[in-house]
Each structure stands twice: as C-alpha cells, then as structure tokens.
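step: validate -> pass
step: tokenize input -> pass
step: predict -> running
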Amino acid sequence: MKNFDSWNEIKKKMSKEKKPRSFQEMDIFNVRIGKNVGFEQNGVGNQYVRPVLILKKFNKHFFFAIPLSTTTKKSPYNFEFEFMEEKQSVALLSQLRNMDAKRLLNKIGKIKKDDFQELKRQLIEIME
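step: predict -> pass
step: emit ->
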C-alpha cells in the first residue's frame, strides 16, 4: 500500500509558498509531482521529485506539463529525445497534466525546438 501521508505533509508546505519560480515553454524542471494513484506517474525520493517538460504556459502560476522518464519503451504515447548529452529522455505523453508553479524546484534543461515541434505533432496525433 502506498504511503500518502508523507506526500500530504509536503503538499501542505508547498501550498504556503508565496513566489512561484519563473518558467517558459520548452523548459525542463524538476518538480514535486507527488505520490499518485493507480498508473499515474509518481515522483521519487522523500520529496517525490520527477523531471517534467513545460508544454504550455497559461500564466505565471499554471502550465501543462509532461512527466519525463529514462526508461525507453516503444509506444505512440512516448516521445524519446535528448536534452542532456548522451542521456536519453522519454516524455510520457499519456501523463500530460496541469500543474501549479509551486511544484517547480529547479530548471535542469530545455528541449530543442525541433524536438519540441515533433513532440507536439505526436501529441496531437494521439489525441485524435
């Protein structure tokens, strides 16, 4: 059984944070994604951290994010790319979700423009 209590304590602290970090579309950040139910992607470690790609910025507080993984698996719901030299990343397109900027920890990179355009094309394709 998953231990949601420790994640709930982190959420309480996050909700009190005043100033969100600055971010842009195409940025890759570590975020506190949490302990989630079922097949939803979880964060790891005692802060429940996972890297995400900022897909769409709505305002300075809110955005669409796609969780990232290093586990490669051929699927139309996965998009493989490299933003760190010699390190393959996988955008988990089926895990697209809204997030608040209070979840942001630190920027770790940025996706290349060509990769970003191809990712969006693939995302639109799976949504049809």
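step: describe -> Residues 5-127 form a domain with the SH3 type barrels. fold (CATH 2.30.30.110).
step: cleanup -> pass
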